[in-house]
Design goal:
about 400 residues, alpha/beta, Rossmann fold, 2 domains, 7-stranded parallel beta sheet, 18 helices, globular
Length: about 400
Amino acid sequence: MKVGALFNYKIKSGVEGRKGLLKKLENDFSAHTNGRPVAWFHAASLGEFEQGRPVMEAFRSQYPDYFIILTFFSPSGYEIRKNYNGADYVCYLPIDTSSNARRFVRAINPRIVFFIKYEFWFNYVNELIARGVGLLAFSSIFRTEQVFFQSYGAFFRRILSMFDHIFVQNKASVELLWQVNITNCSVAGDTRFDRVRTIAANARELPEIEAFSNGKPCIVAGSVWEADMQVLIPVLNRLTGSIKAIIAPHEIKKEQIESWRKSLKGRTLRYSELTPETEISSFDYLIIDNIGMLYSLYKYGDMAYIGGSFGAGLHNILEAATFGLPLMFGNKSYQRFQEAVDLVEYGGAFPIADAAQAGELIGQWVRDPAARREIGETNENYVLSGIGATDRIMEKVKEILGQ
C-alpha cells in the first residue's frame, strides 16, 4: 500500500489516514466512550456502509446507551462518511495483522461487532472470538466460485465458522454454506431494501429538477462511467428534443464531463452552473457535478439507466427501483447482484449490450407510458417485498446482548 500510495491518490489517502491511528485510539478512545458499552460496525466502503446504515440506525434507536464506532477499509467510504452523525467515532480499520487486531480490539473494547457483507478478516475475527465478543455478519451473499467453497478453502471456511451468526441475502447462500458445514447462518434478506424505502420516504424536494423535465419523459443515468456514456450518447442524440436526461457520473471529473457535453447534440447544463435566473426547462441534459443528490433525483425520473455493469460492477439499482422506474444497465457483470438477476427475471430490468438495444428500449418507454409505468410498478413491488431484514438482525442482537 505504501508503494501504491506513490501512484494512486485513494491508496495514499488510506495510508495517511491510518498513520498514528492505533496509538491515538490507545491514548484517548476510552475518554470518548466515557464508560459506555461499545458497538463496532465495519464497512469496506460506501456501498457497504449504505447496506449497514439501517442496522446502525436501528441499533442506535434500541440501544441508545451504546457508543458506536464505525470503521472503513476504503478511502471512498471514509472520506465521504467520516462525519456521519449516526456513529460516535469514525475511522479507518488498521490493516489485518495479529498485532494490529490485538491493539485495536483492546483499545475499543467492543461488546458486539457487525461486519457488513464481505468483510471477513481473520486476525480481527480471531481476536474478537478469543475475547468473547458477539460477532455478526449481515447482508452477505455467497457464490460457488468464492474461495470458501474450493478444495483449498479450509482456512477461509474456518473464519466463517467463528461468527456467532451470518445473515445472508438469499437461500442459495445458505445452501452453499451448509454444504461446507457452516450452519451458523440464516436468510435475513438485504438491508438495502430497508434503506431505500427510508430514502424514498425522505427524498429531497427539488423543484428545479421538476422544472427541468417540463413534462417530457426523463431518463436518470445514475453512477455512469465512460463505457456507459458511450452507449447512451448516441441514443440521446437520436432522441434530442423528445426526451430529457439527468446524468450523474460515478466520479466527478471535469475533463470527462466536458467531453460528454461536446458529444451531446442538445443543450447541456452542469448543476453547479444553475442560478435562480437559469431557464432550466430549455436544456436537454442536466449533468450532476456533485455527490449526494442521486437518490433524490430518481423521484423525478420516468426511467433509469444504472451504470457500472460494463466495468467493475453494477451500482445500486434499488434506489431507482423503489421509485417505480423501469431499469436498464450493461449486460457484462450484473449477474453478481441478486436484485439485478431477480428484476431481470421479473421483467422490471433489462441488460443491454450496446446503443442499439438501449435505443430500442428507451424508444418503447417514451412511446408507451402505460407500459413504462407497469414495468416500474414491478420494481417498486419487488422492493416492498424485500423489506424486514433489519428487524430479523435486531432479534439476534437482543439474543446476544441478553435483552
